[in-house]
Description:
Blueprint: E1 3-4, H1 5-13, H2 17-21, H3 34-42, H4 44-53, E2 59-60, H5 67-77, E3 82-92, E4 95-105, E5 108-119, H6 138-154, E6 159-168, E7 182-189, E8 196-203, H7 209-213, E9 217-221, H8 223-231, H9 240-252, H10 284-290, H11 314-319, H12 335-345, E10 352-353, H13 355-363, E11 369-377, E12 393-402, E13 408-415, H14 424-435, E14 442-444, H15 448-461, H16 468-478, E15 480-482, E16 489-491, E17 497-498, H17 499-506, E18 507-508, H18 518-528, H19 530-536, E19 541-542, E20 547-548, H20 594-606, H21 611-642
Parallel strand pairs: 1-4, 2-3, 5-6, 11-14, 14-17, 19-20
Antiparallel strand pairs: 3-4, 4-5, 6-9, 7-8, 10-18, 11-12, 12-13, 15-16
Amino acid sequence: MMLTKSKFKTGYDCPRKLWYADRPEIYFNANANNDFLEALAEGGFQVGELAKAYYPGGVDLAEFKDKQESLEKTADLLQHDNVIIFEAAFCFNGLFIRADIVEKKGNKLRLIEVKAKSFNPETDSFLKRKGGLESAWAPYLNDAAFQYYVISKAHPDLEVVPYLMLADKSAVGVESGLNQKFKIVAVESGSGAMKKVRKSARQILPLTALEQEKRILVEVRVDKIVEGIFDGSLSEEVDFEKKMNEMAAAYNAGEKLAPRISKDCGSCEFRVKAGQNTGGLKSGFAECISEIPQWREVSPDAPLVFDIAAFRGKEKALADGILLMKDVPDDMLNERQLLQVQKVRDADTSADVKKGELRTAFASWKFPLHFIDFETSMVALPFFKGQRPYEQIAFQFSHHILREDGSISHAGQFLNTDVGCFPNFEFVRELKRQLERDEGTIFRYATHENTVLRQIHEQLSRSQEPDRDELMAFIESITEWRDPVAKEKIIGKRNMVDLCQIVKDCYYDPQTNGSNGLKAVLPAIMHSSEYLKQKYSKPIYGIDCEIRSLNFNEPWTWIRFDKTGRVKDPYKLLPPVFENAEEWPESLEEINNGGYALIAYARMQFEEMPAAEREKLREALLRYCELDTLAMVMLYEGLREFAGRT
């Protein structure tokens, strides 16, 4: 029982989490396996392997899982005057780390922590202008400080200099296909009942001399910042060293540390939402709340201050002893937050609709109406020469049309999951082809589609595509942006309408719990709308049905009810990826949110898989994205009913 760097990260903001994280058989954890999935989606595994490729001749100790053995191997290698070690192990006073890369030359040791995060060395800074660490960088810098401390104490004879190795946003790929040189592979260990399969990245093709010279990862020296963390000038902690050692002592002794309630508790991975099926696992969040004397009688399922949408006063409310949403003073809330809180106080479950504003909005829209949704990815390693890390990849869209006579159809779609293919320009060509047939109003939900198209616009400006100007003009016509020189907002003549903003301005339903996300708003409006219930509780959706689909072969019913009479979440009704999931144990079982769609795309890019599995993932992606634009249509229909329009 030693405090590792991952455990330190878990416990830094909330030491109590160490207790819950080590007891997965007792406590629910929403982040179980999320680290792997997030790293896969962002290309984190590939970044780690690319970093190693920049240090040829390094000795990799990753295969040594036993802590003591890895410590001994590291100590042996450090006897050499010059050595590079991957996953080197160090231990001091109950603290244990495995360093991504260490390079020893004489008595100097460079500690290099690799992160799949972007950094522009020409413009970015780890520090705030008024002092202190930028909050987005604090976890990474605290991690570097933790590792620096352990190595320096374990080897006081060495001069340790810490670095972060990051994706360089100012660099461009000098060869095409860099990201395809690193694949996700299954690695087996043990045998028989002890056999385990884990996934990791592996370099399958060497870097060229030019790729070695013109690197897209940058090393940023952080020794001065680490000094500031330890002397207190750059840390919120009075004594960073003391905190590390106290946390290690408590963890090694198996001590359950006192809970620390803060504004971040609402998003705690150990929080169980009301009605959530956890398979009998307990809520760590509820346990923490029950140990605060003044909140001992508060139900963790009650509406709490954490649940007020975009509420910046959480920390102050908690400091004033306020936990329940209903007790938050009115003067701490904006208009929409006050509406949410007042609904809770009055036990009012009815929706609030601004009919006049909705009618005005409806009158401004032109038929036929187009509803579009994108699925995208931003991975660290660029696909092609001339691209930067984390450039936008738009691999899928769906498109529904609603005509003035009320007829609806799934009018088009696009999906390109070809390995190593940069799909963006073909994506825009197809979107243009589908939308330029008329001048009808185009709808998006939130800002994502606008952001993606503006990023593709910038990519086109650097390209040699023969129809570049035509595609850029199309994007300009349906988007809005701020002119970088004049600093004024420019709006395209056919600028997409943001349905999310319409919801924020004109509609609030307590069933959404303050969320404006489509996946929260849709089930709420389906439950409240009699029109939607009557229409979509029938099997009217499919390839040969009243509402034409491109991907649902059999007639599909979108509104179904649970035992209590509530409408089921339509995203939970999507068919599983595989009818017999046991045949595909390593694959995704379902694709019913954008995160899973992104992961499916990443797997199809970076893993070897059977053609049958690849095809099943494609089919699931198509169904999921199709539902996203149908959801926008149903939202439109529900709002139209509430506005009193037929």
